[in-house]
Amino acid sequence: MFMRRSTVSVNIEKLYEKLLKRGKMHVRVDEVAGYLCISEKSAGRLLSRMAEKGFLEKWGNGIYLLKTDVKRTGLRDS
């Protein structure tokens, strides 16, 4: 039996805003994986993409620092 692979789009701006509302300035890959019910590998790719777009800064192994000076642009990414 074959497992079907699906694609999910994530609005990274909305995710960024939700992460900011937590009141913490850092986020871990495993936290995002649990929050979105995705694998840690997928969460790591998502956070890496968010860092490339300027929402986060890689801080350590699996830890990202949220930037507070991000312009709201309505970006949508998968």
UniProtKB/TrEMBL annotation:
Top-rank taxon: Archaea
InterPro entries named among the record's database cross-references: WH_DNA-bd_sf
Entry protein name: HTH crp-type domain-containing protein
